[in-house]
Amino acid sequence: MRIPTPWRRLGLAVAISGALTACGKEAAAPEPKTSAEAPAQTEQKQHSAAAAKPSLSEAEQAQADAMAADLHKHIEVLASDEFEGRAPATKGEELTVNYLADQFKALGLEPGTVDADGEPSWFQQVPVVEMQIESTPLQIRGADNGNGFDKKLQPLTDMVAFTQRQTDSSALEDSELVFVGYGIVAPENDWNDYAGLDMAGKTAVILVNDPGYATQDKALFNGNAMTYYGRWSYKFEEAARQGAAGAIIIHETGAAGYPWEVVSGSWSGAQISLAAEDKNADRVAVEAWMTGDAAKEVFEAAGLDLAKEMEAAKTRGVKPKPLGLNASIELKNEVRTSNSRNVVAKLPGKAHPDEAIIYTAHWDHLGVNENAEGGDKIFNGAVDNATGTAGLLAMARQAAAMKERPDRSLVFVAVTAEESGLLGSKYYAENPVVPLEKTVAGINFDAMGVLGPMRDVIVVGYGNSELEKLLEKAAETQGRYLAPEDHPERGYFYRSDHFSLAKKGVPMLYFDSGSDSFEHGREWAQKKGEEYTAHAYHKPDDEYDPQWNLKGAAMDLQLGLALGLDLANSRDWPNWYEGNEFRAIRDASADTRK
User: Core-most of 47, 96, 377, 402, by most CB within 10 Å?
Assistant: First the structure.
């Protein structure tokens, strides 16, 4: 779940709530892992790039125009009502994956994987479980009714609850609530929010993000830039490792990076997970979010001030705190097992076909949600992510039309179930069609720009890998400059499909257009971004508009294709910068490829 630029850069809380206090303030650039090696963005570079239009040759402009036309054609189809929001394991999936396979085939690419019989196939089968979850209210009451508090938090308005357990039902019954701060166990940071606590039968109440963001202390975790410890997925996983019965995250718009509407919309429809032999019996019985207002009321019932407890949670060594309250809830699950599919296409290299550059984008969105407000129940996902999916086809067309194939292979993977937790890319990373030690690098496209060419190229997770040097050179040829994301505290690096391969050691690049419009300037682009964020992101109004200016997205695709071809025609093996958490994994893989 992520927010596209330029609207991502503004702060989703600003656009939704109208609380403009954050608007106009630019976050400091994250310090590179090794500052001497990482590309730098300077004030001087920004001003020098302030040209009236992109620097494209006649041939490059023709290519961009062709790519933009391709994008319009494919997005209109993929985001149509006929495709029903492209939810995995639905009619929308069937239409989507067949459309993609037919398009790749027509372009002259080859099937990128094999089926169960060993025959070439466009489809990598991804076993998934779909659950339609019906939740009772979350009842919070005093332990043994000792303080008389008895409150039912209502689904969608006060809380959302779900489960990873692939069973017909799941429940908490008078489970003791324990506030565990950020719910983090990080020995390298000398941090353990569960220290001395037996969580058996208990439910953890957890803050979103991490102490680095909360304190803005650069020496604590990654300072303002969110670490994986700050992600909701980690917090539920850690609660399970601690033996908890349940886990409830307190929503906070600034710390989460998105408003409550995104939480309720994303977790109120059918939930998809990878099929597990143990049916995820090792996960907590109930995973949930509750609003900040609901949390304040719960803490008051416990005789505590939520704001003071949040402040105390920033300090290393603070002990977990039982709230003297119990939680009860019941989930009824309609379980359906099926296969979803990644679509994999390959342009084999002529000299080293066993080595590859990979391009990824997720084809799925949120499908049809009958709980959605208003008459339109289809979440078409035009920007998120029909744009990136169409981008794979546009790049594939250009690559296949080259007179001579590159030395290394190009692999295009349209993955499933990103919106359900990067499931398709996670499955691919565990079952790659090209061994990961032979995967040179990868580029991910998610929610591309629709407002025309931008001067800035935003690198998500800026300062992580040597790929940024190559991207910077390519961007300069277009009259553009690299810039770090404005909000590293929101953890966007962990929220799209590149992360699944990154944590396996493969250098992955995730970039897109910024908000410094060549034609209209930054203020115009920011205003348009606010409109999208407020009205369309993860909502039924994310629909295709034939008036979109997709030449900026086409320029981003040109950068991605040029960078990939440079690597494909070299013997280079780019790496993460020294100090990056994935560097050691990549270094180890170098021995296996010899």
Answer: 96
Q: What's the gap between Cα 369 and its chain centre?
A: 20
**Rounded Cα distance, 484 and 462, in Å:** 5
Q: How many CB atoms lie within 10 A of CB 322?
A: 13
Following DSSP, what letter does each residue of 113-176 receive, concatenated? EE-TTS-EESEEEEEEEEEEEEE--EEEEEGGGSS--EEEEPBTTTEEEE----SSEEEEEEEE
Of 90, 5, 20, whose CA–CA distance to 420 is shortest? 90
Give the pairing type, strands 138-142 and 150-153. Answer: antiparallel
CA-to-CA distance for 568 and 312, rounded, in angstroms? 51
pTM above 0.90, yes or no: no
Return d(Cα 262, Cα 264) in angstroms, integer. Answer: 6
Positive or negative: CA dihedral 182, 187, 191, 196? positive
Question: In the 8-state DSSP scheme, what is residue 386?
Answer: I
Residues 120 and 270 sit within 8 Å (Cβ to Cβ): no
Structure tokens at 558: 């040109």
Tokens of 418: 């990103």
Specify the pLDDT at position 147. 66
For residue 468, what is the enclosing H or E element? Answer: helix 467-477
pLDDT score, position 23 = 28
pLDDT digits (tens, 9 = 90+) for 22-34: 222 222 223 333 3
Structure-derived torsion over alpha carbons of residues 327, 328, 334, 338, reported in degrees to the nearest 10: 30
Q: Are 464 and 37 in contact (CB under 8 A)?
A: no
Number of residues that this document lists for the chain: 594
HSE, side-chain direction, 13 A CA sphere, residue 318: 18
Q: What is the DSSP string of 9-44?
A: HH-HHHHHH--GGGTTPPPPPPPPTTTTTS----HH
Q: Terminal CA-to-CA distance of the chain, rounded, Å?
A: 37
Taking a C-beta distance cutoff of 8 angstroms, is the pair 552, 449 a contact? yes
Partner residues linked to 113 by β-bridges: 121
Per-residue model confidence as pLDDT tens digits over 421-431: 899 999 999 99
What does DSSP say about strands 508-513 and 439-444: parallel, antiparallel, or unpaired? parallel
Residue 160, strand partner residues: 289
Contact 530, 46 (CB under 8 A): no
CB 366 within 8 A of CB 93: no
The C-alpha angle 4, 8, 12, rounded to 5 degrees, equals 125
d(CA 226, CA 421): 17
In the chain, the amino acid numbered 398 is Q
Residue 8 pLDDT = 40
345: left (phi over 0), alpha (psi -120 to 50) or beta: beta
d(CA 290, CA 295): 7
Instruction: List the chain residues with pLDDT less than 50.
Output: 1-49
Q: β-strands 321-347, 138-142: how paired?
A: antiparallel
